[in-house]
Amino acid sequence: MTGNFRFFDTTTPPQKGKVESGLCSICKGAHRLCGKDRCPLMVKFYSRQKTMPLIDTKDLAGCSPPAVFVGRYGYPKVDIGPLLPPEFGDTSVMDKPELWTGKSIDEIVDFRFRLVRGKYRIDATDFRKGGRIVDSVQELALTEKPVEVEAAFSQKPSGRIILDDEVQPFGPSARMEGFTKGNGRFERNLERNFYDTDLRATDAVVAAYRNGTLISEIQKAFSVGTMGVDRNRRFVPTRWSITAVDDIIGKDLLKTTKFNETIDDFRLYRWNALDNRWAILMMPCTWRFELIEAWYPNTTWNPMGKEIDIISDCEFFDGRTEYAHIGGCYYASRMAVNELLIKEGRTAGVVIMREAHPGYIMPVGVWNVRENVRAALKTEPMHFDTLDRAWLEIEGMMDIKRETWIRHSGVLTDWRIQRRIDDFY
Prior knowledge:
alpha+beta; six-stranded mixed sheet; 32% helix; disordered N terminus
């Protein structure tokens, strides 16, 4: 059971006025007409104001975290290039989502919008004709620690600030005429994959992950054509590479976890971050998985709604054959769940319930799901001998009630109607 659903939320107070269009021009960030606690445009504006005086030039130098970006529009003709801030020193936190758990929206926006994107057009499927710039982008993606980069732009960096629920935000951009980078040491697992031109890309991703390379580092290397059989290598848009790596790792873990013994009771993990509430329910049964997202009015993907938008995607023991409607968040959360199951040598039926409340004023990327599910699963769970007792706790922490979650859930509906051997004892 998958799809988009809406239901009326009687707990949401009616708005005093109704503005169909021109909302921002009327509000001007002062009257909170959209219902958010803070104006997301003003948060972006103030962060950008800090950066713009530092990039008022066609030549920019700084320490890249290291970070790169591969665009997707016009594929296979796409823009590639480095992300660099106008500052030196240890900038690694700017592109390492594994370090962002617990940080506020303002903190994330502040250091991400300091990253300027250089753009250089290539053919992603025939990138070797791109010359030295392509080589430098690949080397930057493989580098382990921040490295000095200097970029020459055809004009001063400008343009819209990128916000997306799949990729991490970043700041202004400009077309790049060239760039140079200092010497840096390659991450050892990614370097091994780069030189092994007979190793399939999926095997390279799994090998790096198993040997301790961070997922965010693997995603960068995957996106710039440094993995896979030599003749098949190509640049992959950053947005696609993030989901691809989560999916590859998750499927590899599932080869083991889905055949493990089931857990012994019902578990509930709870977590709150960035005004997102998470309830992760694990059930003592064979593998099945579901992510249910509830977007409240005045949130990123439900800005003008008066009802809560709910979307869900699920799979059972045999997996999925279609791409999840929810997108990359589905694969990121599935991967995180299987990390725990691998560690424990168990399997389970898992339902992740997410409530995105109005404080989540702008999208910050798939990492938000991956790292917060990981963080939740590191906490001590609550244990129950029946699902009904687990529901009492879930309803105490989440605003949405049991019947609504079940109505929009394939896994929970199946649990309710499917007869099991235990029912006969």
